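Page 42, continued from yesterday. The earlier attempt failed because a stray header line got pasted into the input along with the sequence. Redoing it now with the clean sequence only.
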Amino acid sequence: LWGFFAFMAVEGLPGSQFYKRLKLFITDSKRFHKLTDDPKHDLFLSKVHMSVIYKFTFCQLFGLLVCYGITWAGIAGISFPLFIMVLVPLREYGFPKFFSEQDLQHLDPLDLSHESEATSSLPSSE
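This time it went through. Structure tokens are written below.
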């Protein structure tokens, strides 16, 4: 069963914005301009400063590692759902203290209707 969940997680990575932002950590800074020159590039690359993208991605990676680490903490591992529940108010009330609302809207929108409006306003290739 563990292998099935691992396979599903790996298969879902390429379409994830989190995964794309993680790849930016290992991308040469000289190639950033090539990423934004592509007409199909992600909107957050041109709307959010790179240092903010790094900081936000690091915060999300830290949360992921804490949630993963707690599962290996023996009997304390049963508190895993509590850590997942803490992530929602942290995103809604904690992150706006460190990131602007505009940056958060591009990196991790709470209301997905705004993101779909932004992508629908892009010119289509038809």
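Notes: Residues 118-126 have pLDDT under 50 and may be disordered.
Reminder to self: strip header lines before submitting.
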